Amino acid sequence: MIRNLRSTIVETVCTVTLIGSSCAFGQLYTFSKQELIDYTAKSPFDRLPDGRPKVPDSMIERARDLSSEEVWAGLHEDSFRNQYADGFQVLHPGKTMVGRAFTVQFMPLRGDVDEISKNKAKENGLSGLTNQTAIDMLQPGDVLVVDLFGKKVDGTIVGDNLFYYVMKATRGGGLVVDGSIRDLDGISRIDMPAYFRTVDPTPIGNVMLTGINIPIRIGGVTVMPGDLVVGDREGVYFIPPQFVREILDRADEIHIHDEWTKMKFDEGRYKSSDIYSSPKDPKLQKEYQEYLKRRLDEIHQQQTSK
Amino acid sequence: MIRNLRSTIVETVCTVTLIGSSCAFGQLYTFSKQELIDYTAKSPFDRLPDGRPKVPDSMIERARDLSSEEVWAGLHEDSFRNQYADGFQVLHPGKTMVGRAFTVQFMPLRGDVDEISKNKAKENGLSGLTNQTAIDMLQPGDVLVVDLFGKKVDGTIVGDNLFYYVMKATRGGGLVVDGSIRDLDGISRIDMPAYFRTVDPTPIGNVMLTGINIPIRIGGVTVMPGDLVVGDREGVYFIPPQFVREILDRADEIHIHDEWTKMKFDEGRYKSSDIYSSPKDPKLQKEYQEYLKRRLDEIHQQQTSK
Amino acid sequence: MIRNLRSTIVETVCTVTLIGSSCAFGQLYTFSKQELIDYTAKSPFDRLPDGRPKVPDSMIERARDLSSEEVWAGLHEDSFRNQYADGFQVLHPGKTMVGRAFTVQFMPLRGDVDEISKNKAKENGLSGLTNQTAIDMLQPGDVLVVDLFGKKVDGTIVGDNLFYYVMKATRGGGLVVDGSIRDLDGISRIDMPAYFRTVDPTPIGNVMLTGINIPIRIGGVTVMPGDLVVGDREGVYFIPPQFVREILDRADEIHIHDEWTKMKFDEGRYKSSDIYSSPKDPKLQKEYQEYLKRRLDEIHQQQTSK
Amino acid sequence: MIRNLRSTIVETVCTVTLIGSSCAFGQLYTFSKQELIDYTAKSPFDRLPDGRPKVPDSMIERARDLSSEEVWAGLHEDSFRNQYADGFQVLHPGKTMVGRAFTVQFMPLRGDVDEISKNKAKENGLSGLTNQTAIDMLQPGDVLVVDLFGKKVDGTIVGDNLFYYVMKATRGGGLVVDGSIRDLDGISRIDMPAYFRTVDPTPIGNVMLTGINIPIRIGGVTVMPGDLVVGDREGVYFIPPQFVREILDRADEIHIHDEWTKMKFDEGRYKSSDIYSSPKDPKLQKEYQEYLKRRLDEIHQQQTSK
Amino acid sequence: MIRNLRSTIVETVCTVTLIGSSCAFGQLYTFSKQELIDYTAKSPFDRLPDGRPKVPDSMIERARDLSSEEVWAGLHEDSFRNQYADGFQVLHPGKTMVGRAFTVQFMPLRGDVDEISKNKAKENGLSGLTNQTAIDMLQPGDVLVVDLFGKKVDGTIVGDNLFYYVMKATRGGGLVVDGSIRDLDGISRIDMPAYFRTVDPTPIGNVMLTGINIPIRIGGVTVMPGDLVVGDREGVYFIPPQFVREILDRADEIHIHDEWTKMKFDEGRYKSSDIYSSPKDPKLQKEYQEYLKRRLDEIHQQQTSK
Amino acid sequence: MIRNLRSTIVETVCTVTLIGSSCAFGQLYTFSKQELIDYTAKSPFDRLPDGRPKVPDSMIERARDLSSEEVWAGLHEDSFRNQYADGFQVLHPGKTMVGRAFTVQFMPLRGDVDEISKNKAKENGLSGLTNQTAIDMLQPGDVLVVDLFGKKVDGTIVGDNLFYYVMKATRGGGLVVDGSIRDLDGISRIDMPAYFRTVDPTPIGNVMLTGINIPIRIGGVTVMPGDLVVGDREGVYFIPPQFVREILDRADEIHIHDEWTKMKFDEGRYKSSDIYSSPKDPKLQKEYQEYLKRRLDEIHQQQTSK
Hints:
Six copies of one chain form a homohexamer.
Chain A: H1 2-18, H2 33-39, H3 57-62, H4 68-74, E1 84-86, E2 89-90, E3 97-108, H5 111-123, H6 131-135, E4 142-147, H7 160-170, E5 175-181, H8 184-187, E6 194-199, E7 207-212, E8 216-218, E9 221-223, E10 228-231, E11 235-239, H9 244-267, H10 272-275, H11 282-305
Parallel strand pairs in A: 3-4, 4-5, 5-6
Antiparallel strand pairs in A: 1-11, 2-6, 3-7, 3-10, 8-9, 10-11
Helix pairs in contact in A: 4-9, 9-11
């Protein structure tokens, strides 16, 4: 029930402001629903009420088995080689993070800009412009992705209370912050993946919220709202929606390939180059192809039967 | 003449796009002339055709004597303590940089966004969206301020040819780039101040232009188009226009204060704390006040007579 | 029994040297028992035989539930905002460290000073001046806090033998060293919290012991002997004794606040800002106040009954 | 069986090339079997078919209990103080790594050299010169030690498939790479020790294989093929074979010493300096000597009975 | 005269050792004259007596005007994109360095290997194996390129005495060291370009000389003996000889292009994109082509007449 | 005259406080005149009124020609190998710094300690405890050496006014600060050597003065008041007074040695190892010894005649 409530609120604000031309909450950067739709036009999927592409829940489930290497294999076009970020502390290293990017941007506080932003927010019926303004808009399946420009002191997007709330609101989606968190002891007891640069005891401050669901930069990546976020022990991939299906299908093959490769290594009769990355002997090659086909069929049946 | 030419072009593009609601060149982030005026409403000065506040040329001249400490003294309100950036390589350490911020933002290349941006640029009559798109809009008195997110390889905003052009177009204004430059040997022979993170032989690449004269972040500073940029050996201050006059006046007093202080130290009769930061002895205090008044009068006469 | 033995020794040395004016062991910096008492005069508690404030054992027990954020909340006066240090490797991340600071300082070896220090130590009846000189003075409830100026090679305050001894002598108090340890494999099997910069196989060397229970600097913190040391996954707080009671009481409220907040989030009917950081709706506000009062009463009864 | 197969191959290649004067596979640096034997002449042990000293399996077993400190104690001659490397990420912190160094070196790709190397490799009957060329030569008991000059992107020596193969071929020996690995999620499920600088999703590339079983540099260490590699939570020691027996014997004594020291600390009757590093009281000294002798006898009986 | 003397010595040593199969001085890595010739077979130039390609003196002279960007432009094939190193301190920033790479490699000292190396050196008639062993072989036009693996303390390849000698022997060629130098005050008074990581007062030590004129790694570059080394304010390029002529010719065009571009910018009638990187207007295009041709002719006449 | 004035004040304060037992100004660490004399007892020289060893002015003059290497050569005993610090920005790289260490220590502000310190200062007749308290005590020939624990923001020991005062009071002695300075533009116009970690526009703050002329740590060096400070382009040496004469004498020989070595290199007839570090040929050896004797005589005559 809460989810509907939140959706209603978001849409209301947008409806009001769309009389102008954007879904503006008073933040410095506006990126209207239409602009969001334009810039993510390649997504083959439905959209969330806020305009973000909606990678289907079923694909989010399948993506839980993805590794960074499998995403890399499916995303290695020259103009998409900047979709990976690392250098984070990983809260629960064994737990893959998957979800739709909900982006938030902060910039260093500057009194004149902040005053005007907050006045605009009030005109739009918001009582303030804080991390909670954004957090209150989260949807199930979202990963909260925040640009806090690597800030440590005063750069803590959440403590354990709001982290708990994010977990509830996103149904365990996750958090990526180019900045810090506070209350690590408390947060480490909550079962949601999180990637952060560092930890500090101070609350967030000396910054201003400048964008919600706008394009943001995390490390060397341009993240678009609605990207499929996949995090493992190594780092985080931000996958444009149009690549998701292909990556998942290819990953199925890679899983089978690795399964078979290790099986052959277990036999102890081959050098690594006899088998990997592909078998040299035509007979082995054929054996592999048959194995691949059989296992793919099994997987497809499983997926269909779900 | 060239300047008029360029202004015309800029206005033309804006006129066209203002039929919509912003001065958009196709870049990802738009920040309309009206938004720019709204967010810099506190500026007491005229505006440039592109909407930026125009700190007067006479104040730019006076600002050439400012040091970072004098700006600090005039800008130390709690909500404006983030206006200073350092950690740059300084091209000509003895040469103060002063001018109006012309801001440019790049983000990591991402094929889908880039394609749509460039299509939008074409619809707006631009042949491309590159560093030169922005550089061609520079005005005399500008300092080119560029967010290239600290990028070294492929993050070189200019080589010596374009640096030479920027020098010509801004009349020696200057360059600040959170990124790199190339052709340092050539650039070091050109007489314009520049602040950059590092140097690389590669040309700019693997990025997309995402904003011209939008708010940007340089290190820990939110820079607004039209800020007065002041750079010395230590680093760079970005001064909101509404503070400029007060800082300049206060700096005159600081100059006189330092002049007098050093004169007294030269006499060799006082401990530092007798004189600095203010004289303890009432007689010295009076002497200083008279000196201050006399010198201020002289300075004001000079300024008036110019 | 060992404890009494050790106390006797310490007092003896002090008695002798107090004929002079300080409890000097020959180290370079002396800080007499009287100086220690003077500089920690705000402590409301009893003192240990060596002059350090003695935060009561019962408060040490209560402090085991403190998080860095709770200390931060109680210690955020302007002149006490430097009491937190981080950047350590944490030996047992899930285990809070609490105890009274026993401080030790080393400086880089310098033959002439070292020779004189050691001669003075001999005159005071000590056979040498080493890490063990200090370690032999530890009391139950102490945390050993050591300034080894970040030294890695030759900067290892203990290996597993002495770490084991520190654990026994402090009854599991803990160790903070701005320096390194050796024999991490062995140490990681011992159940005492420890915070260290790094690890090295070399033993301690090329340094001289310059102070025991003197004021020292750990990162950006001035640590006084007898400070309450609280370490969690994030870092270490050094709490002046006069703040301890207030912080503990406030932490009780914060615990209840977080308990209630999460309970409300679990209901799924509220946005985060409806509840956090304080409930907006007067009815909720009242509900919270009643909950707070009831839970505080319960806690106080528990504390009394102990 | 696979092992014999592999040995045969190695010897064949060597036999052929030894007609010249080295066991060259086409790589840039050649280090003939004779040179290897010359430069490791101090080893008292047998040799592997490729010329490396063969520290006996029984000593490898005993070395599993070694800590970095025990190696340090046995290897602290002035001209051997550079045998320790750290700063690695450790895959399985609780699991000691022990084995014989199998060294591999890569250098940055350079088209002209690479072309000639590969031509020479072909003349020697190899189909290429890649990480797998080296990996296919691994023997049981080996630790794969790789100089990839700290490279992250494109510097991944193995992903989970080849890591699995290395585990099978070396019988769980281990991996040290001054470079990166990929597919950390997969690798962390495989039970073999590994030390690496960092992790990246890219496969290895933009490098050329320049040496197999040649002297290489890992951090500040010159590693020779056949060195005994010992890794714990702190870092990795590369022990020249001639020191192995002495270090193992000395470590037995250190184990007993630590055992006894902790036992005495447990009694709670002594200051640390009464006992550590050696007991002061002649009676205790005697007690220790008797304990040492008894325990050493027990250990030797155990070792003999194995 | 000294040069002949030195050449004789080198050849003598080589003659002796060539009875074996390499020009070995006892160092750990040998790289015979024949191997050197094989691996640099693409060089179109004569060779020095030690086998290195000899880029002609006339080309070395022309290369003094090269900038890093011009080398970049001529060396941007995929398999040669690793030929640039930076991150050095530059001794004389305004002075271009040009010369033939004379390579030297050191590795961390290890007593057993060092002993054998030195014995082999003695058998070859050398009294030792030190930095001076290599320095004594330098030829006019050489740049001394040294891998000291970034070592600071004990990693100083020269002080001012040997730096002076290198200057004399190479006729001012230059020095690149991935390591340090000592006596910077003295060295800064000597007129030869130098690139080094850092400075330290210690002399070289705790290392062993492992190769002279072998392939070495400097940062991310594989350097071959005889490469043309070009250093400017930005960093150092190592150019394989086969690319030298083309780069020089192309640089002539780039010089003319920049000359013309700046001339046109001086006219003040064009936007940067009208002119740069190539003129858009066909008339301007033609003007440029004629200018280019005329200036190229002038340059060629100059070069011929020299 | 000012100097006498200052001395008087210092002595007065000391006289008063010596009734207690130390020359205390209220700072946290006290180090009495007697302690200072005890710990520097090896100095063969007179003392300044504050108890510091007074390296004679004539030796300070001779020391202006010292390089770091010459100090290194005279100070390389095992227990004095920690007397060198580097990693500073050097204000005037060509200008050697020489003088007697006047040490000052700051620690992070902590309200309770600061309050007590200031109260004690007041009881001792001082109006406060700030950087100027220390600066007002400087004597001609001093180098101000300050531990500000590397602090950048709020860690600026002086701006241009106080730097000017330090220059006047020390007669151009110099400044070493493990912290920052402000107003670099102004300071760079003042002719006194300075070594600092970094620069910031903020004034000093958030610290407390904890010691004047006490032992302090600068990087890896224990600095004693009265040490001879020698700074060149590389870094700073802190020389215990007892070593000064020997180092100066040895440096004279090194100067002559280098003079002769370069002269021989200029002849072009020798390899570097024929001459350096000492000539091999007995005839050359004799030539050098005669040259050395003659030049030493000349130097001694010069020194005597001064």
